[in-house]
Amino acid sequence: MRVPSLPVRRRTLPALLFVCLGWLTPLATSHAESPRVDPHFVLTPRAAPLEDPPPNQARLYVVREQYLRLRALPYETVYLDGKPLCLLPPQTWNAVLLDPGEHRISGIGDSGPFRLRCEPGRSYLVRLRERLDEVDQRIVDLIQDDPALVSELVSHRVMFATPTAAGLAYLARKTQHLDEHEGANPLDDPLAALRLQNVLCERPLDQVNLRTDFGEHEGRLSIDTTSVRYVRRVRIPTSFTSSEWLGDSLDIKPQDIVWVRFGGTRFTGQSPWVTLFVCTPTKSQMVSFADLRTTQSVETYNRIFVALHDLMEWSRAREPRAQGDARLGGQR
Question: What are the boundaries of each domain within the chain?
Fold first, then answer.
């Protein structure tokens, strides 16, 4: 007696699903669970240290957390003060203790040396911000960010990159091609007054300024030890034949700044925004700044971030924010 067979479609579909799941499961777990060994580096999961650096040193984090394309991208060569530091494939990071003072990160992408000033007992975070331009070419920018975010950035599939002896030798051979001075970013003096034009401002929770926010209406930003002040005067169309001038200003006291961070991008395209959280006895709000000019946006971002972050740390050292921290319920 011949037993009728099942239709081919009903038999093969579960088998195909089983095979596909069998292939996808190791792909989804192997990167996060097992170290990756390369002739030039070893990748291992590692948590970022939570303690502060020694009082006579600073700690620098360099994080490349993005995965821009599905296909493998080349690893970045990273030098600190002209000496080999590490190699960073996508979704990796490294950290180092260093002496206070000015330092240079170089070898990454086509940009010039990235200068930063480190104070003793403080940590610093430099992120590789990768993006694609109009012709699908990769652009790498270095931006500073809040070091309190390091644990969050490296907690999911971002591995610690340790160079091998072969990797350090490879970096040493490429040292002669480094340019340690051309194209370096400007570095302002600590707590020096900063005056900038062509700055956009956004306050999404401020209902009064919705008519001037979310538009390309630039103003003037001033940062010093007395206040963070932003002023703009814009002309808003009211009909096809008429318009009105609107004035807008913002004044923030240094002691009211709670944190300063990278705020992503907006309608300006790929320009990075600096976001600060401000808390006073009567209200709290987030304020963001960016340069209207795309070609200067990364340089302006870093200048604003450093000025605001230094101002916040300076204010905390002078007047501990016990009351402000209590209002936030411990949020940092």
Answer: 41-177, 194-328
